[in-house]
Amino acid sequence: MTEKIIENMATIKERISNACRESGRDPSTVKLLLATKTVAAECIKIALQAGQTLIAENKVQELKEKYGILQEIPHTSHFIGHLQTNKIKDILKYGVSCLQSLDRFDLAEKLNRRLLAENKTMDVLIQVNTSDEESKFGISPDKTVELVKQVANMESLNIKGLMTIGLLSSEAEKTRRCFRLLRDIQQQLIALALPGVEMKELSMGMSGDLETAIGEGATIVRVGTAIFGQRPTPDSYYWNENK
Ligand SMILES: *Cc1c(COP(=O)(O)O)cnc(C)c1O
Asked: Do 172 and 127 touch, CB atoms closer than 8 A?
């Protein structure tokens, strides 16, 4: 197990640097985030011990279960799943420093209020639904600027950029359109120069499409399967509202 994970990480890093080379980018501008849903804490530990520092869960329940074990090793924890407002207190309690899946006003407002009460701040990325699929979360592209403007006024939330899940397609060009759309929205927001809004991070690209995402400017790629192996549950379980 240990060897396999370490070998897979080396392969991913090579894929990242090859993709950077092809698009003339410096590999240090792309962060590797380990998407750890369904992965046992012991396996995540192997990756952290091998030098990885950035991990993210999709479900509060898993965040909670693994928190104690992973505490032993310094790392940064993001959240990339659909967050219900009644679980906001948990992501604060279990050390999440960035919510990448902020996709609605209601969630932003309640998160901001809770942070204010606890005298804390949090980094956020706005999740955009660039593939127009019912089953995925994210604000629609044409409403993104408005949400960013609203969140910009919330003093405990620091907007750092945008996040998306690209269309899962065997045709890379279709997926590329999603990533390009996210970058277009980023550029639009940069041009608006809203006070308190940073647009440095583009979190896009996963095991199957990270090269495409890096070609379109990804600064964070989120990788699960290619490092930890196939998951027992289909992604729809994590990406669907009713589960
Ligand atoms: C599971 C997941 C990933 C990683 O997907 P893989 O295909 O396993 O690399 C990335 N982002 C989100 C939001 C996820 O839920």
From this structure: no
Q: Determine the distance separating the centroid of ligand 1 and the alpha carbon of 130, expressed in angstroms.
A: 15
CA angle 121, 205, 75 (to 5 degrees): 45
Q: Is 58 in the pocket of ligand 1 (CB under 6 A)?
A: yes
User: pLDDT tens-digit profile of 111-138?
Assistant: 999 999 999 999 999 999 999 877 678 9
Question: Which atom of ligand 1 approaches the CA of 222 most closely?
Answer: 10
Domain count, the chain: 1
Q: Cα dihedral angle (177, 178, 183, 187), rounded to 10 degrees?
A: 90
CATH number at residue 87: 3.20.20.10
Check pocket membership of 205 for ligand 1, CB cut-off 6 A.
no
For 56-101, how does the pLDDT look when each residue is reduced to its tens digit (9 = 90+)? Answer: 999 999 999 999 999 999 999 999 999 999 999 999 999 999 999 9
Residue range of the domain that includes 97: 2-21+29-227
Q: Is 161 in the pocket of ligand 1 (CB under 6 A)?
A: no
- Block residue for tokens 């070609």: 215
Indicate yes or no: pTM above 0.90: yes
235 in any annotated domain:
no
Q: Is 238 in the pocket of ligand 1 (CB under 6 A)?
A: yes
